[in-house]
Amino acid sequence: MMDSFVVPLPDDSLKFKVNNVRKAFLKTSQIANKDRAKALNLMADALHNNMEKILEANKLDYQLAQKKAISNALLSRLRLSKDKLLEGIQGIREVSRLNDPVGQLQIHRELADNLILQRKTVPIGVIGVIFESRPDAVMQISALAIRSGNCVILKGGSESNLTNTEICEALKEGLRLSTIDENSICLLTNRKDSMAMLNLEKEINLIIPRGSNELVKFIQENTKIPVLGHADGICHMYIDCDSDIEMAIKVALDSKIQYPAACNAIETLLIHKDVANEFLTKATPLFKENNVQLRGDEKARCFVEMAPAISDDWGTEYLDLILSIKIVEDIDEAIRHIEVYGSRHTDGIISNDINNANKFMNSVGSAGVFHNCSTRFADGFRYGFGAEVGISTQAMPPRGPVGLEGLVTYKYFLKGEGQIVEEFASGAKEFKHENIIK
Amino acid sequence: MMDSFVVPLPDDSLKFKVNNVRKAFLKTSQIANKDRAKALNLMADALHNNMEKILEANKLDYQLAQKKAISNALLSRLRLSKDKLLEGIQGIREVSRLNDPVGQLQIHRELADNLILQRKTVPIGVIGVIFESRPDAVMQISALAIRSGNCVILKGGSESNLTNTEICEALKEGLRLSTIDENSICLLTNRKDSMAMLNLEKEINLIIPRGSNELVKFIQENTKIPVLGHADGICHMYIDCDSDIEMAIKVALDSKIQYPAACNAIETLLIHKDVANEFLTKATPLFKENNVQLRGDEKARCFVEMAPAISDDWGTEYLDLILSIKIVEDIDEAIRHIEVYGSRHTDGIISNDINNANKFMNSVGSAGVFHNCSTRFADGFRYGFGAEVGISTQAMPPRGPVGLEGLVTYKYFLKGEGQIVEEFASGAKEFKHENIIK
Questions:
Q1: Which of A15, A354, B64, B237 is most deeply buried (CB count within 10 A of its CB)?
Q2: What is the CATH topology of the domain spanning A12-221?
Q3: Rounded to two decimals, what is the model's pTM?
Q4: Is A368 within 8 Å of B30 when comparing Cβ atoms?
Q5: What CATH number labels B235-377?
Q6: Nearest by CB to B377, which of A119, A255, A414?
Q7: In A210-299, where does DSSP find H-type helix?
Q8: B5 Cβ partners below 8 Å, 6+ apart?
Q9: In terms of Cα–Cα distance, which of A206, A214, A250 is closest to A374?
Q10: CA B52 to chain centre
Q11: What would the pLDDT profile of B112-137 be if each residue is shown by its tens digit?
C-alpha cells in the first residue's frame, strides 16, 4: 500500500503551522524546569475538566469506525474508556515529577586561561510523532515532549481524529494557563500533512513513528530527519546446554505469551541440541495449552510433532501466538543465527554457565541482552524510566527503551574573553584542558 | 556529477570481505582495554618499520596524480611527507593512551530482587569510512576504531590508492603481532565497492564520510545506515550592540582567516546596526589586507564599499577568503537569520552583555555556541578530546567534534534468576528500581 505513495510537498497551511511550532520552540526551550513541570499539571487538570467532551468524541470516532472495515485490534486500540483516560491523566502527573533531563552538565573544562567549555543537555527541538490509533499516545507523548522542553507535532490515525482533536484542545487549554506557548503542541489531522512533514528537515528535528512495521519502514526510508524507533522486533531466547529446564520453560512461555503483540515478545526459540529433547517434551504441552502454534526446523520435528518452519519464519515478527524453533549445535550457532535474523531489539539466554552467559551477552549486538529472565522486561517502565517514548533498535544512542533522557541532545557552550586560535597555533598560548570540579 | 550515480549492489567479493570484517568484530569487541592499547602501539611500530615503502608509494601516487587534471588543493592533501607520516604515527600512540571509552557503566539498578540492570558502553560494530585523498586519515581513523573495539572498512580517494594500500598493509602487520584479528581493518580501493557498501545496512553499523559537501550529501541521501558527519559548515559570528569592537575585529578575523577551508571558519558576519559603522570602518582595511573579499547587504554597503551579497550568499559555505556581511536590527534578527541559514555547526556572539550572550547561546540550536572567542576552537583536539573522527551537525548525539566517546554506543544487560513479567503484572512481585551504588 505505502510503496507507491509519494511523499507530498508541504502546502502553505502546513508551513504556517510548523513555523508557529518552531517559533514556540525558541521560547519553550528556555522555560525553567519548575515551570515545565507545572505546565504538565495544568495540562492534566484541563484534561480532567474536559473528560466528558473527550469521551463523547471518542464514542463518535468509535461509531464511525465500526461502520468501516476496520480490524478488531484497531477498534480496541481506538476505544478510550474513562479508566484509560484517567490513567493517561495520571501518567502526565507522573512525568511532571520525573527529574529534569535538560541542563545536565556533562563536560566542564577550562581549555585555556578563562576559556571555559561546557557541554550541557538541551531539548532536541520540534519532534514529529506519527502514530496509529491509540488516542492515549497523544497525552503521553505531549507530556514527555513538553517536560523535556521540546515542541511536538502529532498525527494520529484518522479513525481517532475527533478524540485526538478534543485531547489536544484540552492540552492547549492547560498550556494557556502556563508560561508555555500553546503552539508547542500541534495536531495534524490528515495524512497528506503528516507525510509532507517528512520533507521538512530544516524545521523538524526528530520523527518518532509508532505503529506498524510498514509505517515505520516507510518513514525511515522517506525522510532525512532522524527517526527514533524500530520496525521489526524479532527477539530470540536461546536455551543453553547447561540450563535449568524448568526455568527455561517458564521464561520462554512468559516471553511468548504474556503479551504476544508486543515488540519484546520472542519470535524464535534457539535450543541447544543436548537439551532439545527434554525441553521440547516438557514445554510443548504447555505451549499447546496456551494456544501457541510451534513451527520447528527439521531437527526439532524429530523430537516433537509440529508444523515445519520455512526459511521465511526466521525473519518474521509474528506478533501473534506463533513461535519458531531451531535446534543449534552450540552457542556459537545461536549467536550467528541472531546476528543474521535478529533485529537488535532484545535477545536472551537461559544458562547456568556464567561464561556462556557472558559470551552471549557480549557477542549479541542487540540493544538488550538478557540472562535468565523474560524478554518482556525490555520496557521503559520496567527499567524504571517512569515513561517511554518508544524502543529504538538503532545502533547509536538512544537505543533500547527510550525515556525522557532520550528526548534531549547536548550542545557545547564555549565562553572566552577574546581568545583566537592563531595565538595557540603560533605557540603564544597553550591549552591546559583542566576539568573543573563541580 | 554524483546526482546521476546509482548505488550499486555489493558483489560477492565485497560481501566476502565485509563478512570477514564482521567475523573479526565479534572477536575485536571482546578484546580487553590494555590489549587494544597495545595493538595500537604495534600498529605504530609497523608503520615506522615500513616508512620507506609508504613514502615511496606516496611518491608514485603523487606522480600519477600530477599527470591527471587534479586540483592543487587535492594534490597538496595527497602528499605525505616524512614529517606528516611521523606525526600520524605519533598520533596513533597518543590515541593508545586515551581513556578506554568501552565498558563505562551508565546505569546500575536493581529492578526487583536479584533482577539487575546495567547499561554499559560497547563498540558500535563495523564502521565504514569514505574519505577523499589525505592518506593520514587512514592511520588516524584506524587507530580510533581499533582503540574503541570497532572494526573499520576504509575507502580513500583513488589518487592515494597506492599509499593507502601500503599504510593498511603496515597496520595489518602490526595487528598480526597483537591479539586483534587483522581483518578488523579492511581497505577498499574502488568506488563501486565503497558505494555498494551503502547498501549493507545489516553488516555496517555506521558510515563516516569525510570529504566534500557533495560526497557527504550523496551518502546521507543514499543509505539507511546512520551517517556521522556534516555536509555544510555555515558558521556565523554576531557582533552585538554592546561589544568590544577591538575584540570583535580580532575574533572575526581569526574565525575567517586562520584556516578558511575549515568547516568551523565563519561564512557570515551579522552586525548590530548600532556598531556597524565603527566595526566596518575599522575592520574592512584589515580584511582587505588579508585578502578577504567582503560581500555586504544593502545596509552594510552604506557604510563601506564592498561587493553586494545576493540571497545565495547566506546559504553558501565558501571555504575560501570570502565573507558575507549582514546588518541586523537586533539580536533577535541575528538569531532568526542563523535559524534559517545556519547549518547547526558553530555560531558565536561578541558581546559585553551577559544577558544577550546567554540569550544567543540558549536560542541558537547549533552544536557549538560561542561567546567572545573564535569559532575555530570547535575542534576535538582543542576541546581536549585527544583525537577526532569528525564534526557532526546532526540534532542527536554525538554532535559537535566527535572523539573516541562518539565511537561507542550502549547496551542494556539484564541478569535474573528466572523472573517473568507475568509475576509483576499479576501483582505477585513488585519492582523496586533501586540504584546500586558503585
A1: B237
A2: Aldehyde Dehydrogenase; Chain A, domain 1 (3.40.605)
A3: 0.93
A4: no
A5: 3.40.309.10
A6: A414
A7: 213-221, 245-257, 273-289
A8: B195, B218
A9: A250
A10: 30
A11: 999 999 999 999 999 999 988 688 88
